[in-house]
Amino acid sequence: MAKRGRARKEAKRGLPHFYGRHAVEAALDNEDREVKKLFLTREAAATLDIPEGMQVQYCEVTDLARHVPKDAPHQGMVAEVMPLDDLYLADVMDAGPQGTLLFLDQVTDPHNVGAIFRSAAAFDAVAVVTQDRHAPPESGVVAKAASGALELVPWIRVVNLSRALIEAAEAGYWRIGLAGESEMLLSDALTPGRNALVLGAEGEGLRHNVGEHCDQLARLPISDRMESLNVSNAAAIALYATAMRG
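Structure (tokenized):
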């Protein structure tokens, strides 16, 4: 895939620190990810396949806590990593006749974004597309929630989500925005070919201009007893429905 160069280089707050076995092992297995340094307890190191030449600092559990959010379940391993290189949307869209793109409209919670990546990997989504300024950066929180999927599903960051949706339409994707007020069910809106699912932030939903760039608005068939679902749950259900389409 063509790349634009290093995306978010060393930020003022330092490089991302991924923690937990799944996130760390996935980062080490990803040939496109540069792991700068490992912080490990000796117990965890004994269970990890450490690449030759990798810089390792052995730590006590209490020392590792300095590299992760408070009470984060690091499982004795932390990896200091470089952010992945940026990709253009055009780099990933030619992914076969039934590819599924997932667009997130100002979904900012890192736990939700990480969980969405996990579902995107589980259901073979082509990529997750977010706005550059209205989405969390690569971080240990996102990587932990993604459980390794951050290394498997391309993360496309764009300046303008509506323009990216136009680009997706030109590549043959049918754009479906999830909106609870729609009369049409998602299962009826899906096409047998390429679909682009568009989800908005909890509470706010899709912004008007983003909805205007969808070919169809649709809803999930949830009970009237609940007004809405967590966006990561909605994404998982929508991706499942897309995977099961005829």
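The two ends are 30 Å apart (CA to CA). The domain at 89-243 is CATH 3.40.1280.10 (Alpha/beta knot).
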